Every structure is written in structure tokens, then in C-alpha cells.
Automatic annotation (TrEMBL):
This is TonB-dependent receptor. It is found in: Cell outer membrane. Keywords: Cell outer membrane, Membrane. The keyword Membrane applies. Its main location: membrane. Gene3D superfamilies: TonB-dependent receptor, beta-barrel domain.
Length: 555
């Protein structure tokens, strides 16, 4: 029904419209026929009209008229204030196991009836101090000449300690040593001496030392002062007591420049068969300034000495000598050095007898006057492994000491002095370290003496060669192989009333250490492995091939 009504409405509208157009067309002119087509299946569609969305307006925030009040009540606690005790962080650093063993004992034995006993113990984890004690005995109860007639023993007992404070440390050392030697410089093939018993000489030495020094060695001001006491006596009439005071202080203005003063005081009271009630006093002061910058090093100072030895033609007890040293490294591989220095070398009876244990009664004790020593040379390091040095030293000395056979006892030696000695010393040194398993140290010296009074430089070598090798093929094995050679030693044979040159000394030394565990290790030592009849002093050959083996225990 609705469709029919719509159809009739459209028909009516079209008829009316047609009439209108006909009327309009008739008004303009010609009447035209019109044809209308009515389609029932046609669908009328209208475009979609977008909807208009409007945002909701923001309403004003209502304000409250209420009041809010907060009540704060204080609370008090009767508690003491917190005490803060700052402490250094206790970080657990890894430590070597060897550091855990404060003591060790070494026991060994070898031919020539040679026992060795050595022990040491340290208290080094007891706060601000450490204490160490040591004892050692080594003996050769038979020797190269007449068995017991050439015996030799050495015993040492010592105690040392250090007390650490905030800025300085106090250190001390005391020890006692007993050394026994026999005068075996006789002919064992002489039938008249078949039952000969040699005389012994026992050295008893007591040393006491105490001092103070600053802890921080990298500070601007550094100092060290110590007091030394030495009491010495032998089996005969030689006695010498010494009181010594040593001190040194230096001040660094900056990393390149420093000034320093070294001082030494030595007061000795020696006595022997031919002298007693002597006071030998010696004081040496060495102020200097040192400057170092890159490869340049310069030291300028003076040696100021007072000594009261009595000698002929002596002008004064007071001496002043220059002390100048300089070096310049063009690079690590090559550099040059030079120096000029005068000094008075302190010599006591103890120094002489430690150099020659077969020294007899002396007529006089004298210091060596070093008028000057001038030196020049070159040195350097190649590839950070090989170091070398070669140079020449030229010096002029007075009262240089030598050893000569005694005119009254052929078994003993006397001191002999030369008033004017010229010495030229040629020296060469080489050092090489390859990784961690090999190290080499070698040096050679050649000496040329020009003497004023003596016929020769008695019992001083013309040349010396020292060759040291250290091998570490594995972590537990350490090997030392050393060769010491010496030649051109001139002695005076009073029996023949002539001088003679002693045979060249060759001493091949070998030492092996093998660590079984961290606490146990074994060692073996071999001396004079070439079995040479070496004579450092006339008529005193040393032991032949001599070996010692033993065990070391750490605890």
C-alpha cells in the first residue's frame, strides 16, 4: 500500500511538472512531446552525514572550607651517641706460602769433615716490631795440609730487631762470631816436620749496633743515624775496640735536585806485640749536591777528613778533597760517565785480618790516602736485557797496604806500605738476564801498579775474572755456577830470597737447590771442582774438590 501511494505521488508530481514545462514551452514556442520512464527497482541513496561530537566542559574544582590540623608529639630516647671507629678495609690479598714460614733449619755434611748447621727464626707478625735470631756453625775439621793441622771453623750467633713508630723506626743488631784458623803454611814433605802441630788463631768478635731512621724513604727529608761498637781480639796479643757513629741526611728540593751530608766517626784503640795505648781517630764529612734530569746525572761535593795517623812527611791531619761525578745517557743503549774524587780510606786491624787471616803482629796501622782517582767510561742497556760497562780508573795513593811474608816467621805475613803508588785499573762488566730462567753477571779487572818503595805489589792480583751464572730450568730447581779466576800474584819467598809469581787461581763453584715441597728442599754445593792447588797467599794452598750436601726445612 505504501508503495502504491508513493508511486501515485511521484506520478502526480511529474504530471504537474510536465504541465509546467509544457506551459513554459508553449509560452516560448513549439510544444514538444515528452516521454517519462518509471523504474520501480531504482534505489535512492543519501551520503552519510558525520556526527558532531562536542567535549564535555571542565567543571571548576570545588573549594573546601574545612581546616586540617596536624598534631606532632616529640619523643626523646635516653641513648648514648653513636661512636664510629674507622678501620682500614681488610682485603684478603693472596699470599705466597713461603711467607708463612718464619723459621728455617739447614743441615749438611761433606768431605774434609765439614758439617754445617744453620737456623733462623723471625717474629714478623707481632704488630709494630719484628725480632730475628740466627745461629750458624760451619767447620772443616781436616784440610789440605796435615789433616787437622789445616782445620778451619766458623760460628756465628746473632739477634736483630726493629721497632716501628708512626714516622720513624728504631733498629738494633748484636752478634758474636768465633773464627778459628791454623797457620799451616809449612812443607808437609819435610821429614823434620812430620809430627809438627800448627798453632791456632781464634778470632773473637762482638758487634753491637743501634740506630734510628725515617720510615717514608720517598719523603723530602730522609735521615739515618746509628751507633756501632766492635770488640775484637785474637789468640795472641792483637786487640782492637772500635766506637763508631754514622749518620746521613738528605733533602729533596724537587724530583731532580737533592742535597745530602754523610758523616762517619771512628774511634779505635788497637794494641799488639809492638804497640799499645794508641788512639786512632777518624772523622769524615761528605756534603754534596746531586742533580738528575732525564739522562743527565751530576754530583758535586767534598770529602772533609780528620785522621791522626803518624807517618813521615805528613803535612796535616786535616784533608779536603773534591768529589765530582757525572754521567750522561744519550739513550738507554749508550752513555758515558766520568768522575774525580779524593779521600782517606779507613783501615783498621780488623779490616786487614779479615782480608788475610794469616796476618802476624803488625808494626803500624795506617789509613790509605787516596790523593785522587779519575775515572771515565761508557755503559748502557741493550734491549732491556743486556747491560754493559767499560772504563778505566787512574789513581794516586799514599800508604797503600800490601802483604809480605814475615822475616821472623815464614808461616805469617806482615803489613807493608808504599808511600807513593800509582794505579791504573781497566774494568769491564756485563750483565744479561733472559726471561726468568737465566741470569749472567761477569766482570774482569786488570791492575797496573807503579810503586815507589816496594819491588812489587805483593799478594795483590794483576787481573781478576768473575763469572756468575744462575739457572732456573723449572720452578723447583735453582742452579748457581760460578767461576772465579785470579792471576799475576807476586810473593816474596824469603827462603829463596827471591820473588815468584803464584800459579793462576781457578775456582769453579756449583750449587744446586731443589724444592721437594714448600717446607722441604735439598741442596748440594761443590767448591774447587777443577781440583786446583790454588794459593791466594804463599804456602797456603786451599782445599781440593770439596762438596757438601744437605736438607733445608722451613717451619
Amino acid at each position: 500500500m505504501i508503495n502504491k501511494q508513493l508511486i501515485f505521488r511521484y506520478i502526480f508530481i511529474l504530471i504537474c511538472t510536465g504541465l509546467t514545462f509544457d506551459s513554459f514551452a508553449q509560452q516560448r514556442g513549439e510544444v514538444q512531446d515528452q516521454e517519462f520512464v518509471i523504474r520501480k527497482d531504482r534505489v535512492l541513496t543519501l551520503p552519510i552525514q558525520p556526527r558532531n561530537f562536542e567535549r564535555i566542559p571542565v567543571l571548576p574544582t570545588p573549594k573546601s572550607t574545612a581546616n586540617f590540623n596536624y598534631l606532632v608529639k616529640p619523643f626523646f630516647f635516653a641513648l648514648p651517641p653513636l661512636e664510629i671507629a674507622p678501620e682500614a678495609s681488610q682485603k684478603q690479598f693472596p699470599r705466597n706460602r713461603e711467607e708463612l714460614f718464619p723459621g728455617f733449619v739447614r743441615l749438611g755434611f761433606g768431605n774434609y769433615t765439614s758439617p754445617i748447621v744453620e737456623a733462623r727464626y723471625n717474629l714478623w707478625e707481632e704488630g709494630d716490631y719484628n725480632i730475628g735470631a740466627k745461629v750458624k756453625h760451619e767447620g772443616f775439621y781436616t784440610g789440605p795440609v796435615g789433616a787437622e793441622n789445616s782445620a778451619e771453623t766458623h760460628t756465628l750467633v746473632g739477634l736483630d730487631g726493629t721497632l716501628f713508630k708512626d714516622y720513624f723506626q728504631l733498629y738494633g743488631h748484636v752478634d758474636y762470631s768465633r773464627d778459628m784458623y791454623n797457620f799451616y803454611g809449612y812443607d808437609p814433605e819435610n821429614i823434620l816436620l812430620e809430627d809438627y802441630v800448627t798453632s791456632q788463631n781464634i778470632f773473637n768478635t762482638f758487634k753491637l749496633r743501634g740506630g734510628i731512621s725515617n720510615l717514608e724513604k720517598m719523603s723530602d727529608l730522609n735521615y739515618d743515624a746509628n751507633l756501632n761498637v766492635r770488640l775484637f781480639g785474637d789468640s795472641f796479643m792483637a786487640v782492637e775496640n772500635e766506637l763508631g757513629i754514622n749518620g746521613e741526611v738528605d733533602f729533596w728540593f724537587n724530583e731532580k735536585l737533592r742535597a745530602a751530608v754523610d758523616a762517619k766517626l771512628s774511634l779505635t784503640t788497637p794494641s799488639d806485640e809492638f804497640y799499645r795505648d794508641i788512639n786512632r781517630n777518624y772523622f769524615r764529612l761528605n756534603p754534596f749536591v746531586e742533580y738528575r734530569k732525564e739522562g743527565l746525572g751530576v754530583k758535586a761535593g767534598a770529602n772533609i777528613i780528620f785522621e791522626n795517623d803518624i807517618t813521615t812527611n805528613k803535612k796535616s791531619d786535616f784533608h779536603v778533597y773534591p768529589d765530582i761525578q757525572a754521567s750522561y745517557m744519550l739513550d738507554d743503549a749508550f752513555g758515558i760517565y766520568a768522575g774525580f774524587e779524593g779521600d782517606v780510606l779507613r783501615k783498621t786491624y780488623y779490616d786487614f785480618v779479615m782480608e788475610n787471616q794469616f796476618l802476624g803482629p803488625s808494626d803500624q796501622l795506617l789509613n790509605t790516602i787516596q790523593n785522587f782517582v779519575a775515572k771515565v767510561g761508557l755503559k748502557g742497556t741493550v734491549n732491556g736485557e743486556l747491560t754493559y760497562e767499560a772504563g778505566v780508573n787512574v789513581g794516586k795513593f799514599a800508604n797503600m797496604h800490601f802483604f809480605n811474608t814475615s822475616p821472623t816467621d815464614s808461616l805469617k805475613f806482615n803489613l807493608a806500605y808504599d808511600s807513593d803508588t800509582r794505579l791504573i785499573n781497566y774494568v769491564a762488566k756485563v750483565g744479561w738476564e733472559y726471561q726468568d730462567w737465566y741470569k749472567l753477571n761477569a766482570s774482569i779487572n786488570y791492575y797496573q801498579y807503579t810503586l815507589n818503595e816496594l819491588a812489587a805489589a805483593f799478594h795483590r792480583p794483576e787481573w781478576e775474572l768473575n763469572l756468575g751464572n744462575t739457572f732456573k730450568p723449572m720452578e723447583k730447581l735453582l742452579i748457581h755456577a760460578n767461576l772465579n779466576a785470579m792471576g799475576g800474584i807476586v810473593s816474596f819467598n824469603r827462603g829463596l830470597d827471591t820473588t815468584e809469581v803464584l800459579p793462576t787461581i781457578l775456582d769453579l763453584h756449583l750449587k744446586i737447590d731443589y724444592k721437594i715441597t714448600d717446607q722441604f728442599s735439598v741442596f748440594a754445593v761443590g767448591n774447587n771442582l777443577l781440583n786446583q792447588s790454588n794459593q791466594r797467599f804463599l804456602n797456603y794452598p786451599v782445599r781440593g774438590i770439596q762438596g757438601i750436601g744437605g736438607l733445608t726445612f722451613k717451619f
